[in-house]
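Minutes, project huddle
Topic: does the predicted pose make sense with iron/sulfur cluster bound?
PN asked that the exact inputs be recorded in the minutes so nobody has to dig through chat later. Recorded below.
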Amino acid sequence: MKPFVPKLVYFEPEALSYPLGKELYEKFMQMGIEIRETTSHNQVRGIPGETELARYRNAKSTLVVGVRRTLKFDSSKPSAEYAIPLATGCMGHCHYCYLQTTLGSKPYIRVYVNLDDIFAQAQTYIDERAPEITRFEAACTSDIVGIDHLTHSLKKAIEFIGATDYGRLRFVTKYEHVDHLLDAKHNGKTHFRFSVNSRYVIRHFEPGTSSFDARLQAARKVAGAGYKLGFVVAPIYRHDGWEQGYFELFQELARQLEGVDLSSLTFELIQHRFTKPAKRVIEQRYPKTKLDLDESKRKYKWGRYGIGKYVYRDEEARELEETMRSYIARFFPSAQVQYFT
Ligand code: SF4
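Predicted holo structure (tokens), as shared on screen:
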């Protein structure tokens, strides 16, 4: 697929006092994209659209260039000590995406130009924990790879972490636009993961993202560039024929990765889950979705802030985990499964 190009761009005036802000302004001017001003990236007004749905769709192709003022990083991630904030929002239309609820009424895509401040904060966290390793996740609130061809912020973050002793970077993507990252000086400190799924899930629930084959081609390139490679299988979803669907996924992964050095390959396994607020939003935004959000078929798991999640019942979750682990053992015997959740 073609790399993402926004239809409309907003700038915070202050963003123009940073080199990346200026560079992006020039770039979008030359591309002939409409540019508007916004006083704050947290409060963008006037995104066009007659209905809420139309405004939502337009917001997903609107880019907002701003200055990140909250420099405290979120630290509640299972796979990393901190989330490094390079961008917020995504142009994809995955029906199950948790950003639908976490970003609420602000689904537009925000990128931050004060990278030096963000990296200085990351360095502080690294120093506090040294000589322990500090891991940063760059894809908690966006699919950063899919946006990065415009900003190269991720590339700079890869090189920043590559130059540290105790920092590590990780992110996950459904996009194929990795070419500019291949020559980044990562020094083996970045863990590059691709999100993959059964053919059924990709076809029905992941519009607006790269195809499976394109993701795999990108994965080959990334492995060739010496990055540590991983796959996040998420959300693992019990559709009709899921056993066969996921079998084919791993079979196809093995086929397409033939000849690639997989000695440090990892898998992360995440079963499908949803919250009640997410269900409401999904039904509004993707009213024809086939996604099964029937609470009565699930187990309720208490969550933080009183918002519990609906996950598969124990028996079904166990079956999912055992099946995925058996496929991985068969096709990738030396890979490490980091977790099932
Ligand atoms: S690609 Fe990732 S971040 Fe983007 S919509 Fe899909 S699940 Fe959400």
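Observations noted during the meeting:
- The CA atoms of residues 290 and 315 lie 23 Å apart.
- The chain has a mean pLDDT of 96.
No decisions taken; revisit at the next huddle.
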